[in-house]
Amino acid sequence: MLPFERRSLASKHWKEWFIFALIFAAVGAFWAFTLVDSHERIKTREEERLTHQCDVVAMNLTRQFSAINTALTGVIKEVPVWRSQIDGPRLAAEHLKALNNAMPGVLTFLIFDADGTVKASDKQQLVGMNFSARDYFQAVVKNPHPDRLYVWPPFTTKLGNFTMTLIRVIPSSTGTFDGMVVAALDAEEFKVLLQSVLYRPDIRAALIHSDGIPFLMAPTSKHISGLQLVEPGGLLFGHIQSGNTTSVLKGKIASDGEDLLVALQTIELKSLNADKSMVVAVDRPWDSIFSRWKRDVYQAIGLYAALIVSAAIILALRQHRRIRDRRVTVSMEAEREAHVQELHESNHRFRRLTTLSSDWYWEQDEHFRFVQLHGDVDPKTKAANEVHVGKTRWEIGALNLTELDWDNHRTMLANHEEIRDFVIQRTDASGSIIWISTSGMPLFDANGTFKGYQGVAKDITASKLIEERIKYLAFYDGLTHLPNRRLLNDRLAVAIATCKRNNLFGALMFIDLDDFKPINDRYGHGIGDKLLVEVSSRLTTCVREVDTAARLGGDEFIVVVSDLGTEFQDSKVLAMSIAEKIRVEIAQPFWIASVQEFESDARVEIHCTASVGVTLLSPLEEDADILIKRADLAMYRSKDAGRNRVQFYDQPS
């Protein structure tokens, strides 16, 4: 492409991108304006609905407070009459009960005398109680106004009810304080009013005293006694300070709450001459109001981004095609040669890496026959290329795999699955057992046709031998090759279970060598270890293959014998005879080869005896630790009796 053609094409491309940017900037501005306008309309609509719900609650609450105030005024007029009659308290109580039944919103009515004692109530248990120490009583006594309705903040009563009270003063004939009439409001009855304005599940409504203490919240089951909502900076504080009757604000009711859109309306109760007001709050979470709007915003952004990306891709592809059409086509033969060279280098790097990470590299054809092997293969497997090539893995064979294992392997290969750490046991050129771990991947050509497998293999014989040695030492003594304490516990548990199942007796023998320490001190630990090996050999010749001879540690051994018989006495006699046989066998002289280099042909004659303790395994339930302790006690009795003896464990009488 000539230089002037490149400049002309680049200029045309820049113009296309400039027009592209102008179009999508205009579309984005239009969508942004639409979304902002939608946000404002949603906010305005929600403010109107919340304000309307406040109006409903305020109107109904004003009516109920007016009715209660009328009832309190009526009671005050009747108080002088009741006081002048003998059965006045009864008449007053009946009148208050009738008022309580007619007004579900009132929890209880009370009439106090000037000393704070309840003279009459619809709750008989309150009569005679003195409430002069209550804050609301003291507040009214200090500043009594016969024409005022006292609206006292919510609190918990002595009966455990959360309430708020409406109070009016009972004046004396001279106009002084002569008691009060109190109506305690029932929060549960007012909850119905609040619930009626909850037009969505996430709406909340609250009735709050102007002092900031909530009387009721709906919906909620949380106890709200003691909450204080008039906090500086809070929405309720701001509403009260503004002096407005109605406010719609965004923020938090309490400092630790979530962002809300709240409609607040103050119920002044001026017609009732109330000393305090009430505030109705109806709120809805800000995020909930705009959740659908936010979803629309995300969808609009996603659509806008998708349009930009799609249009940009289309424009870029068109420009790229335009450039590509003006370029000189590169020779296909040159591309092929470059590709072949790259594959060759890649294959060479792969083989170098496999040589470094494994013992050898192998390849198979589509029929799973080996086609080549590279690496340290001959010494490891007694199989050079001429042995492997042309054969499948199962034709060569393995010592550790059954025909079923090979079937599973062939199924995996037929499914073209990856081979991972497939372990094969074979023999090497010397006939020794070796272990091989092989892994491989299926090969496919450019058309996806299966061409065979390639992979690596390595000799894992050393790690396998270490693994088997670790397993062996977990259950056998490394010196004598007898079962250790762990395997003894397993076999003893089996012997106990067999005795119980077949109703047979068995025996447990505790064997301790006499004077083993002096022998060790005199001849050295090398001779001592060889002596323990010889003792172990003699023990195994004294018992059957089904029995167990184990080394407990040091010079202590245990023998477990099963199936002695069904009778205790016969089993005891047989067990003692076996133990005596062991004792006699150990008492024979030992000829131990010297461990000294200058005495390579010399042998040392050692005399060693054993003390044996015997106890029986009964068909009854037995504990392995108890059996060993019994045999141990019997062995120590042998020691105390002079050593080189057999003692049977007898239950202490």
What is the element layout, followed by pairings?
Elements lengths: L2 H82 L3 H15 L3 E7 L5 E4 L13 H8 L7 E7 L5 E10 L5 E9 L1 H9 L8 E6 L4 E5 L16 H8 L3 E6 L8 E8 L10 E8 H4 L1 H34 L7 H26 L2 E5 L5 E6 L2 H4 L3 H4 L4 H4 L6 H12 L4 E9 L5 E12 L5 E10 L1 H13 L11 H18 L2 E10 L1 H8 L1 H18 L5 E6 L2 E10 L2 H20 L2 E4 L9 E4 L2 E9 L6 H17 L5 E3 L5
Helix pairs in contact: 1-2, 1-7, 15-16, 16-17
Short key terms for the protein model shown above:
Beta-Lactamase; alpha+beta; 653 residues; Alpha-Beta Plaits
Describe the structure.
- The longest helix is centred in the first third of the chain and has 82 residues, at 3-84.
- The protein has 3 domains: 31-304, Beta-Lactamase (2-Layer Sandwich), CATH 3.30.450.20; 359-466, PAS domain (Beta-Lactamase, 2-Layer Sandwich), CATH 3.30.450.20; 474-648, Alpha-Beta Plaits (2-Layer Sandwich), CATH 3.30.70.270.
- The chain is flat.
- It has a 5-stranded antiparallel beta sheet, sandwiched between helices.
- With 653 residues, the protein is of the alpha+beta class.
- It starts with a helix and ends in a 5-residue tail after the last strand.
- Strand 6 (204-209) and strand 7 form a beta hairpin.
- It has helices spanning 3-84, 88-102, 135-142, 187-195, 235-242, 286-289, 291-324, 332-357, 378-381, 385-388, 393-396, 403-414, 461-473, 485-502, 516-523, 525-542, 568-587, 624-640, and strands at 106-112, 118-121, 150-156, 162-171, 177-185, 204-209, 214-218, 246-251, 260-267, 278-285, 360-364, 370-375, 419-427, 433-444, 450-459, 505-514, 548-553, 556-565, 590-593, 603-606, 609-617, 646-648.
- The mean pLDDT is 85.
- Helix 1 (3-84) runs antiparallel to helix 7.
- The chain is built from 18 helices and 22 strands.
